[in-house]
Amino acid sequence: MSNKISIWFVAIGFLWLTSCHKQRSSTSVIQIVATDSVAVDSLPANPDSSVAAIDSAETNAAVKVNEIQFDYLVAKSKFSFKSKTQDFDNTNVNIRIKKDSVIWISVTGVGFEVARGLITPDSIIFMDKFHKDYFVFSYEQLSKQYNFNLNFALLQSVIIGNMPFPQPADAPFVKQNDFYVLKQMVERLEVDNFIGENNLKLSRLKATEVPTQNTFILDYEDFREVQGFLFPFTSIINLNVKSQKDQQVNQTDMRIRHSKVDLVRESPGFPFSVPSGYKRKR
């Protein structure tokens, strides 16, 4: 899995998987308190099918993409994940974000919380409340493990539907049917940003890694108005990565659907502390 943009959704999937993990390892104690004053089988088999052939190559330099501005975000969501080895559907996830500072996620089972995660610009921590384990990752560790540069700003951009990579002031857009398309080269990624002509929102992002040709496609759907901004209530992710062992292409499908999203000015709170009896797994 070597794509920058997918890590936020993989992180949610990982948080759920840790709550199902049964192994044990070394012990440690950590205290962290952060406070602040769909069914998968219905995912599209071919994500590119929604984009028709290019009608024109008109260059448009003056396209202003509609971005979401906020202080805090609170969302109730359902997350689905399907890969060759894992398949779960409509997991309940609560999300809280302080812009540029904290992403807090809570996974609930039948009437109780099974896992919690805290993502900051410095680290990513997951706590498995069912098995009493916790995991701590630095961005450097994950970047080496998945062979890409990971950062907090990227994770935040993916969940809120803003462009994950900055738009140059003089960036030329190419008109393709109902989209304005901005092409970017970000390290080893060829990135196509599809901006909807009718709402000027990021509607699709396709990233292809060079030279592996691994692909990541993110589609935003079901735009609704939230405090004056258009917010995508559904995100569909398709990741195709070639195995280095057998050269087979492994497909992973993910989807997150929000049932409620609020942009608020006051902190909703980000409670996170690991009890002394929990075991550190990593």
UniProtKB/TrEMBL annotation:
It comes from the Bacteria. This is DUF4292 domain-containing protein. It comes from Dyadobacter sediminis.
